[in-house]
Amino acid sequence: MWFWLSVIINLGFLCVFKYYNFFASSFAQFSANIGLHVSPWTLKVILPVGISFYTFHGLSYVIDIYKNRIQAERNFVDYSLFVSFFPLLVAGPIERATHLLPQIKTKRSFDYYKAADGLRQILWGLFKKIVIADQCAEYANMIFANSSAYTGSTLVLGALFFSFQIYCDFSGYSDIALGVARLLGIELLRNFAFPYFSRDVAEFWRRWHISLSTWFRDYLYVPLGGSKGGTWMKIRNTFIIFLISGFWHGANWTFIVWGFLNALFIMPSIILKTNRNNLEIVAKGKLLPTVAELAHIVLTFMMVVFAWIFFRANSVTHALSYISKIFSASLFSGFNLDVNRSQLFETILLVILFLVVEWLGRENPYAISALPKLQKRSYRMAFYYLLVFLIFLFTGKEQQFIYFQF
């Protein structure tokens, strides 16, 4: 009884704040379509920042106790710190009590090497957010806001800019959160593992927003039967997980379509049982991938970018018109983006620099974590100062973290 009461209260707050207005307006629209006119009562409240994150955070604690994975925490201060640990409070990663609570209860002392590593990851996170994500956001926002005025090639550019914006924005926040926690002697769950170097969509989802993917796997997919049943059960459970994941991101049909597309994209690997083929990072121990690996990376990235269009669009209609414009004759026209071309070229060069660094560091927990292995300290310091210089140079075009809204 206490377990279900806790689940209902937690999900109840989430549904009221985040989804009530969506269902009310959807019901009104449906009623209008069948000739009935209703005026639904809607809530005029501000969505609490990060409510989806700490709701799932708290649910995992209750579920783990119910499943006898952990004992209930009797120390109220330790429990409160677990629930409200500030680095991950507003945008994750979604922590587990089994992972974080033991660290909170263990006595910690300052560790210089951990602290230095934490500062290094914070620096890389700030670079990703301020230098890459915020610059890409300027062009992505411009293109998506006036998509009907641009050629298909320009819309492709807008989708690419948004893809790098959302990755660097969200993974940048995660890097900052993990780095800050490490300064305090706490190791948080890894949230990203170079997802844009994935060779199929199944691998992408093992590397993107890892804490959410594993949360759905452990607390929803497995209880539904997981992969123990036949192929039909795997397909059903996969669609359920992705549709709920889409709905978790926001009360808009665009997120549900985005989730459906990702489920559709992952189906071939589920049916052919190849979804566990690519567990290691691509081209491990090598400088360059094979031609086949590169082709798979490019194809997977194109599929992910296509789905991101629905994620970013204001409505499903907007997304469909955006896509139809891409697949028109204007795709072969030049870019008609009326901006400073040198600044645009500068942003593209920064994205390329970022990809090179990510590729070279892809076997590490984050891209620049192996820098201390460089023998010459002057090289390391030069790279750090370059990052600091770029961060200060591009600070000013403030963009809110995308996942704050979730």
Structure description:
The protein has 406 residues and is mainly alpha-helical. The protein has 2 domains: 2-105, no CATH class; 113-199 and 278-400, no CATH class. It has 14 helices and no strands. It has helices at residues 2-33, 51-66, 76-84, 97-105, 112-145, 152-183, 201-207, 210-221, 231-249, 253-271, 291-312, 316-326, 341-360, 377-394. Helix 5 runs antiparallel to helix 6 (152-183) and helix 6 (152-183) packs across helix 12 (316-326). It is globular. The model has no long low-confidence stretch (mean pLDDT 91).
> Proportion of β residues?
under 5%
Write the H/E string, N to C.
Answer: HHHHHHHHHHHHHH
- The overall number of domains is 2
Instruction: State the helix count.
Output: 14
Total E-strand runs: 0
Q: What does the overall shape look like?
A: globular
Give the termini distance in whole angstroms. Answer: 29 Å
Average pLDDT, all residues:
91
State the gist of this model:
This protein has 406 residues and is mainly α. The chain contains 14 helices and no strands. It folds into 2 domains: 2-105, no CATH class; 113-199 and 278-400, no CATH class.
Summarize this structure as a short list of keywords or feature phrases.
globular; 2 domains; mainly alpha; 406 residues
Task: Please give the structural blueprint.
Layout: H1 2-33, H2 51-66, H3 76-84, H4 97-105, H5 112-145, H6 152-183, H7 201-207, H8 210-221, H9 231-249, H10 253-271, H11 291-312, H12 316-326, H13 341-360, H14 377-394
Helix pairs in contact: 1-2, 3-4, 5-6, 5-13, 5-14, 6-11, 6-12, 8-9, 9-10, 10-11, 11-12
